Amino acid sequence: MATTTPTSAPLFGHIYRKKSASPQKVARFSPYKLPNKSSSLFNLSGHAHARPEQPPPVFKLPVSQPATFTEQGQTYMNTTHVQLDFTLYRDGQQCSPSAEQFEKLYDLFPTTFKISFSSPFLVIFCRVLPAKPWPVTVAGMPLWLTDDEKAKPMDIGIGTRGPKVVLKAPIKLCDPATEAVAEEIFTMFRDLGAPISRLRWLGCFFVVLAPNEPFDDWQQRLPAMINNIRVGYIFRKDILQEKALRRKVPSKDVPDNVGYDTLRPGVLVSSCSPLGQSHDMNTTSGVCVKSPGGERYITLAHHGFPGGINSFVYHPDRGGKVIAKIDKIFGETDIALATVNPNCRYSRETFSAADAPVTPFRNLADTDLLRIGSLIYMDTPFNGRMEGNLIATEFTRLADQERTWFAVHVLTWFGNGMHTILDGCCGGVIWDDNHDVIGQFRYLDEATGHCYSPTYDWLRKFGYTLAQI
After folding, report:
1. Which pLDDT tens digit goes with each residue over 17-73?
2. Coil vs helix vs strand at 370
3. 453 in Cβ contact with 445 (< 8 Å)
4. Which of 242, 186, 227 is nearest to 209 (CA)?
């Protein structure tokens, strides 16, 4: 099959990084085109399709794969999204492949011996793993590649033999989960005497997280299904703060530490080194927002500025200039707002991808509309432009003296064949295909490859809007 190379967009009007933030370029598109035909809905979590036993072939990546390159005698795939002549994800729903389509999936990696669907992932088991980097999606579905037959891409908890319950708020398989659904579920567990810490939605599965088992016979008393959707339970102490507060000097890749006259989402920012540490903390700048009162701020990662309120924000590092000062901190979300210096300009656009038009960020995203499996993007000084998938939304109910609200987080996936995401990516903006800003990167769970990010939805509901300076 002949391959084509996407034509680069013209330089005029684009904003390119002055220094590469990624050791190699990954193609955004492959030449395969998706057909306009429908497939049946497929919602079986953990469904597996094993190929009949055959002698394992000699391992090499198929030469028909698009955008490959060879380095030191090894062939690598250079495609972020492998698009075939069928799709496993359409309009927010997973689709069931035919026997013929299964064969095409097997042919992607010659040592494949089993294919499993563990929503929202396509899991491909190989006897010998290919050289990295690996694709992030295959046929529109997030790819999880492994050589461990017992491995699972996500912890969905322990099921129960309890009752089935029906909510007043509507929720169906593959639908976005809304705050109305979360509110009803949190209230239900509170009334059962089993208050929960967090609620995670995977598109076809609920996962309830709480620090301790509420009672000895919880597997008989807690709901097994909600609106005919299975529920899993994870009981352990919340480890979010431990992970969010990790400190590490970025050392694997050289970041884009160029000082820019016009600031924008995705530039390097730094704080003074905390007491007892020999290095400054580098993170990534977020978006500019305007409050209901007209004040303008930029979003940052709170834990990157341990000095708290009134900490100075430097760009690109402490050897550069002071661009802002921390004004507000929202500790539960790890989001901080900083007031920008009067002589600084801050754009509504991040850096340009070579094959995409310049598009300013449009709005703060409404998390009630987020669909599991949809494409997301991030651009940081450490990893450059990255593309991935939204794999879960998570709700935490918060309260102060004036009100109760939900902090909504998203779990995202940039592939388990990616380069390491360094701590300096914290604060990096995550957005969708509509250029609506979902939230900011917080941490990578190195055990699973899942990225945890607070959303800006509560800022939107409190009256904040996207802006520029």
Report:
1. 666 554 333 322 222 222 232 222 223 334 566 655 443 333 233 333 333 445 555
2. coil
3. no
4. 186
